[in-house]
Amino acid sequence: MPSRSPTLEGFRTIFCRPSFGFAEISWRWSFGAACCLLFTFSFFEYLDTLSVTRLDELLLRTRHPTLVSQAITHIFRGSGLRALETMVVLVAALALGWIVVAAIARAATLRALLAYFRERASILSSEIAQPRVRAGNWRLQPLLGLNFFRTGVTLAATVGCIAAFLLSAIASPSMSPGSASLIFLCTAMLVWLAWSFLNWFLSLATVFVVADGRDTFGAISAAVRLCRDRAGSVFAAGTWFGLAHVAAFVIATSLVVFPLGLAGVVPRGVIFGGILIVTLLYFAVADFLYMGRLAAYVAIIEFPPPVVVPGFAQPFAGSPLHSPLSIEPQTRVDPDELILSDVPTQARS
Fold first, then answer.
1. Can you give the residue ranges of every domain in the chain?
2. pTM of the full structure
3. CA 327, CA 129: separation in Å to the nearest integer?
């Protein structure tokens, strides 16, 4: 099979088929908007449970920092348990909703990507390669299981960051604030790296659920084999799309700093609108790059490397001679060659 770069295939997919990126944006942003609305409504419902006395109103109207802080402390006293219960119920409901919604959305996007690449593979059917064996129909339960693991990993990472903060707070009295901050940053960085790797690996396993119809642990095993057998292609795709994501983040950060520098000249509404637009554009680019990286992984699976047979001539990929009928061992000898001139004429005739 002609050598095809999975990374270039991923970038080509998001540029030639932007519908994949818009599909990812549609379900991610819809779920994100629903989460923001639920958090907003929950916050206002929580505020309605607070009791404000006339004394608290009087202290708030004074606008004196000390009196206002006393009023706020009295208003929120005893409401921490209600806030914790609300947060736990809301996070659990959103996590369950994300598991289901993400499984359905990922199945839809992966089916479209697989159809796109298999159509391209049928066009390139003249290329020499062993056809990849595809299993039966896929099921939704393995995707739910993988998303459940991703949710558990995220929860563990959150607990790890909280533990890092508590550890630095405990160690701060016996050391300088800079050392305590360094402990927190190093621990949080290690937790973030572990979460990033596991989350990436579980997201890679979802490809095998839809492509080969594997179960949850079978998809994880297939992802391990892919990283072992095609480590170079997987690493290259992740690296190039990661660099593109970093570049997009740096550009977005630079654009956000620019309107902040005009805070004294431009109205606040314009500054807030500019920051919001830049942030949304960055999220859109990040979603497109995510789909491009996923397309690169699908290309790795659907376009396996060519099978090289020792002792056979390997013509240049893409040439007209690159076909099963044109490849044959170079073992035939012409009897009219001069090297056989020492053979008697009678024997040659």
1. 6-124+135-306
2. 0.77
3. 13
